[in-house]
User: Fold this.
Amino acid sequence: MHYQVVVIGGGAAGFFGAIVLAEALPGIRILILEQGKNVLEKVRISGGGRCNVTNGCEDPSELVNFYPRGQKELLGPFYHFGPSQMKAWLTSHGVQLKEEDDGRVFPASNTSETIIDCFRYCKNMAST
Ligand SMILES: Cc1cc2nc3c(=O)[nH]c(=O)nc-3n(C[C@H](O)[C@H](O)[C@H](O)COP(=O)(O)OP(=O)(O)OC[C@H]3O[C@@H](n4cnc5c(N)ncnc54)[C@H](O)[C@@H]3O)c2cc1C
Assistant:
C-alpha cells in the first residue's frame, strides 16, 4: 500500500490535519500512525470528558490576551483559523455546539465522544 502523506500521532492535531487535507485533496492517501492503544485518547478525557473545543471570543486581538506567553505568535494563526472557523467547521460537520457563560464552547451533547465520532466519521468518509 502506498501513501502520499503519513501522519505520526492519532491525536486531535493529527486527525484534524489529515481530515482537512483529505477534504482539500480528495483521493489523497493518508496513513495515521498511532503508538497508543487507541487514537484520540486525549480528546476523550479533555474538558473533563466534555471536550472544550474552542472559546466564544471571536476577535483574535482580544483572544491572544489570554495567552501571555504566546500572544504575538498566536495572533496570525488565530486570524487564519480561530474560534469562528473552528465553530463553523464543527457545525458544518454535524456537531451542535453550546457556549457557556464563561465563553467555553462544548459539544451540545456534553460529551467528547461526539467530537471523536465526528473525527472518525470524517476520516472514514475522506478515505473511501
Ligand atoms: C486532562 C486534560 C484535559 C484537557 N482538556 C482540554 C480541552 O478541554 N480542550 C482542549 O483544547 N485541550 C485540552 N487539553 C489539551 C489537549 O491534550 C490538547 O488540546 C490535544 O490533545 C492536543 O492534541 P495533539 O494531537 O496535539 O496531541 P495528543 O492528543 O497528545 O496526540 C498526540 C498523539 O501522538 C501519539 N504519538 C506520539 N508520538 C508518537 C510516535 N512516535 N508514533 C506514533 N504515535 C505517536 C500519542 O500517543 C498521541 O495519541 C487537555 C489535556 C489534558 C491532559
In short: The CA atoms of residues 70 and 95 lie 29 Å apart. The pocket of flavin-adenine dinucleotide is lined by residues 8-14, 33-36, 41-42, 45-47, 51-52 (CB under 6 Å). The chain has six helices and five strands.
